[in-house]
Design goal:
By secondary structure, the protein is α+β, with helices and mostly antiparallel strands. It is 30% helix and 17% strand. It folds into three domains: 125 residues, D-Maltodextrin-Binding Protein, domain 2; 176 residues, D-Maltodextrin-Binding Protein, domain 2 (3-Layer(aba) Sandwich); 232 residues, Dipeptide-binding Protein, Domain 3 (Dipeptide-binding Protein, domain 3, Roll). The termini are far apart.
Length: 608
């Protein structure tokens, strides 16, 4: 029934008109180069909650974006209008980025040493220093049996002794006492606190991309108090601590998150986070259409967990609305959309385990239609490889299962279904998240699959439930709760040798447990071997060759059905300034924006 949504839309339209903001011929100044003003409340609205509030397991874009405000990593991406600078790494909690030249990386490239800034503080009672042991604790909690790290191969395949540590920890009771006892009584050979200010990490083999792994929020410092709660439990979410510029002062599940200034934070120790606003308020449970209307009306500043709806994006970009931006620039793409294919489910006699059935799926999808419903060629492009361009492994001319003009080939798809023993087609349970363009993409995909003989039923899920419960739990796939699912992926870092950030979590068949991102349980020893070659390569060129081999094999196997490579398009309110790209959030950097209508009290309190 559609009327409640229409009624709500009309209500917000009236509110926008009263505020004088429904006229899309924007005349407000949006001068990002003006002198920043300290103060004010940044207002965010979103449809669903974070997947995890614990840094060791949080993996959705919204979670990673939120972590920017209240956590610190050893190294981080700096906020910058310059794309090339924004994808570099700078010192964060560490005094400097380790290198061979400064002695932070040993001559054999196996040992990394991080010296911590002395003025890092937890907002604990009493306030105390962040020490190297807090970073060690993060690595120790990676493999807790309740909410383990989202991308375990990143670390188990690189850090000395972590794989064995994890194998043992995953067997301990999933209780507070069981986890605490294991953490306190067991060590990871490759991770140690030399002293309070020095962290040492030793690798199993050289890994040129390791510095990017410690930039991930997974490796954020973890205070000892977190051992008093089950990881990411409701009790945990009410007792988070901060060492960043903001602290969570209010958390109501699926309703609201409030962050306020952290008095224990020392601005001089944190050049990466200017932290201009005083408060960040996040309202959850908002319909995606209303999110857009609230931003246009000026009652919200940014969307929390969703990019723009396609219809809004297209119309506002057409008139050159300065509040709308797409990123990354040029021919770079920030993510991809794909169909995860459940290869272990029992539905239809396990039909999706057959290559020909998966090939039929790959040929059936009309990708040109998906480009149009996703905002057009300025923000989306058909994808016929298992990774998007800008990711190690993608190669010009290496497309597979292409169709004329990317419109799909239903005749060829039906022929493959018949050869596989399904001349009358097969029914499919198609799961997708209710977020931004996902819904319309799911409908367009349903239409093209139907033309090819598939009987597709759509199953919508809230974003947090879809990515936090349905897909990462392997039992859901084995029970057949879904057959295909509309997935999205962003590389965990941009630039450098980043194949590990896509190919390893999505396609390594040796990591299929709880919270695995290999949703369809794809497993091919040829792909696994190619991943291993890339990870152990001595040179960048050798690594690239391994990633290319892995990509080619996954695409041939239809481990997923690649559909689109996309940019992130977002809208900001007219009062929001300095919207520089956050790689983790694919949005305006939360700790860098400022508000034009904030009260400048610098004359009374002094500048930062």
């Amino acid at each position: 029934m559609r009327w409640p949504r229409i009624a709500a839309t009309l209500l917000l339209t009236l509110l926008a008109a009263l505020a004088g903001c429904t006229d899309r011929r924007i005349t407000e100044e949006t001068d990002d180069a003006a002198k920043p003003i300290r103060g004010g409340t940044l207002r965010l609205v979103g449809s669903s909650d974070v997947d995890h509030l614990s840094t060791t397991s949080g993996y959705l874009t919204g979670s990673l974006w939120l972590f920017r405000g209240f956590t610190r990593q050893l190294v981080s991406n700096p906020p910058s209008d310059d794309f090339d600078k924004s994808i570099t790494l700078e010192a964060d909690a560490a005094i400097e980025v380790p290198s061979v030249e400064n002695g932070g990386i040993s001559a054999d490239a196996l040992t990394y040493t991080f010296h911590l800034k002395p003025k890092l503080r937890w907002n604990s009672t009493p306030v105390r220093r962040v020490v190297a042991g807090d970073f060690v604790r993060a690595f120790k909690l990676f493999c807790n049996p309740v909410n383990p790290v989202g991308a375990p191969p990143y670390y188990t395949s690189t850090i000395e002794g972590l794989d064995e540590y994890c194998s043992a920890m995953l067997k301990v009771p999933g209780t507070v006492e069981g986890i605490r006892r294991f953490v306190e009584n067991n060590e990871i050979p490759g991770v140690r606190a030399v002293d309070d200010g020095t962290l040492e990490i030793r690798l199993r083999a050289p890994a040129a991309d390791f510095i990017y792994l410690v930039a991930m929020p997974f490796a954020s410092a973890v205070p000892v108090e977190y051992l008093d709660y089950l990881p990411d439990s409701p009790e945990f979410r009410q007792h988070t601590l901060s060492n960043g510029p903001y602290a969570i002062t209010r958390y109501l599940q699926n309703r609201e998150i409030v962050l306020e200034r952290n008095p224990a934070w020392d601005a001089a120790s944190d050049p990466i986070r200017p932290a201009w606003v005083d408060r960040i308020q996040i309202k959850l449970g908002i319909d995606p259409a209303l999110i857009q209307l609230q931003i246009e009306a000026g009652t919200a500043d940014l969307g929390f967990d969703s990019s723009m709806l396609t219809v809004d994006q297209s119309s506002l970009q057409a008139i050159g609305d300065p509040r709308v931006s797409s990123f990354p620039p040029g021919e770079h793409y920030s993510g991809m959309r794909y169909l995860a294919v459940n290869q272990v489910g029992p539905n239809n006699g396990g039909a999706l385990s057959q290559l020909k059935v998966r090939q039929a799926l790959a040929l059936a999808v009309d990708k040109s239609a998906l480009v149009q419903v996703s905002g057009g060629p300025d923000v989306a492009s058909p994808l016929n490889q298992a990774v998007m361009n800008g990711v190690s492994g993608w190669r010009p001319g290496a497309d597979q299962y292409s169709t004329p003009d990317d419109r799909g080939d239903p005749v060829a798809a039906r022929r493959l279904l018949t050869e596989a023993g399904f001349p009358d087609g097969i029914p499919l349970r198609f799961a997708y998240p209710v977020e931004a363009s996902y819904a319309i993409q799911a409908q367009a995909t349903q239409a093209s699959l139907t033309r090819a003989g598939f009987e597709v039923t759509l199953f919508p899920f809230a974003v947090s439930d879809f990515f936090g419960r349905l897909l990462p739990n392997p039992q859901n796939a084995k029970r057949g709760e879904w057959d295909i699912a509309l997935g999205g992926w962003l590389p965990d870092w941009v630039g450098g040798n980043n194949g590990r950030s896509v190919l390893s979590p999505l396609f390594d068949g040796r990591q299929l447990g709880n919270l695995s991102q290999n949703y369809g349980k794809y497993d091919n020893p040829i792909t696994n071997a190619a991943i291993d070659r890339a990870l152990s390569a001595a040179t960048q060129e050798q690594a690239e060759a391994g990633w290319a081999d892995a990509t080619r094999q996954v695409t041939a196997d239809v481990g997923i059905v690649p559909m689109l490579q996309v940019k992130s398009t977002y809208m900001r309110s007219s009062r929001l300034r300095h919207c520089v790209w956050s790689i983790m959030g694919m949005q305006c950097d939360l700790a860098s924006v400022w508000l034009a209508d904030a009260v400048d009290e610098s004359s009374n309190k002094g500048d930062r």
